[in-house]
């Protein structure tokens, strides 16, 4: 009879343990899933598409990617023509110490000559520079040839986002990975076939 009681007790303990283990598994799944990033967090870090067909020459649009502004500028031929003449005034004219993909390693720092895609955060202390497209004297630069000016600490960047010598910013504006999905659509945060 003691053997029967022990078997019943053993069966009860085993079945209770099995049910407890299954219950712990069901309880662990939502707990572990809570560690995964939310859909909103995934979207914030994922690639962003933008239609650039309506950006007129000389204009800039601002796109939010990973919580930071990305400037897309449709540069005019006049703006592009002055780039070579600025090389002697820049800290890093050939973008050797820049944060940028290899496929934009040119004076324009872009895939398409006229379209600049650049992170709109100053490389000095993280302010957002303002876009000054006109090739006219400005209060901060009597020989201004278009580009970006950061009013926080007076860093100046040309129309390719290259930093001028004498600016507090240590390097050129960063270029994010991007690709053209078609003639009018870019995807920021994805190299596509460019890599």
UniProtKB/TrEMBL annotation:
Asked if the Swiss-Prot or TrEMBL record annotates the protein with the keyword Metal-binding, the reply is: yes
Q: Which domain of life is it from?
A: Bacteria
**CDD domains in the record:** Rieske_cytochrome_bc1 (cd03470)
Q: Which InterPro entries match?
A: Rieske_2Fe-2S, Rieske_2Fe-2S_sf, Rieske_Fe-S_prot, Rieske_Fe-S_prot_C, TAT_signal, Ubiq_cytC_Rdtase_Fe-S_su_TAT, Ubiquinol_cyt_c_Rdtase_Fe-S-su
Which cofactor names does the annotation list? [2Fe-2S] cluster
Record bears the keyword Glycosyltransferase: no
Give the primary localization class. membrane
Q: Where in the cell is it found?
A: Cell membrane
What keywords is this UniProt entry annotated with? Answer: 2Fe-2S, Cell membrane, Disulfide bond, Electron transport, Iron, Iron-sulfur, Membrane, Metal-binding, Translocase, Transmembrane, Transmembrane helix, Transport
* Top-level enzyme category: translocase
- Protein's membrane topology: Single-pass membrane protein
Q: Which reaction does it catalyse?
A: a quinol + 2 Fe(III)-[cytochrome c](out) = a quinone + 2 Fe(II)-[cytochrome c](out) + 2 H(+)(out)
The chain positions of domain Rieske read: 109-187
Q: Please state the Enzyme Commission number of this protein.
A: 7.1.1.8
Q: Which Pfam families match?
A: Rieske, UCR_Fe-S_N
Give the co-factor note.
Binds 1 [2Fe-2S] cluster per subunit.
What does the record give as the function of this protein?
Answer: Component of the ubiquinol-cytochrome c reductase complex (complex III or cytochrome b-c1 complex), which is a respiratory chain that generates an electrochemical potential coupled to ATP synthesis.
* Other facts noted in the record for this chain: The Rieske protein is a high potential 2Fe-2S protein.
The UniProt family comment states:
Belongs to the Rieske iron-sulfur protein family.
Q: How does it assemble?
A: The main subunits of complex b-c1 are: cytochrome b, cytochrome c1 and the Rieske protein.
**In its UniProt entry, what is this protein called?**
Ubiquinol-cytochrome c reductase iron-sulfur subunit
The record lists the organism as Marinicella sediminis
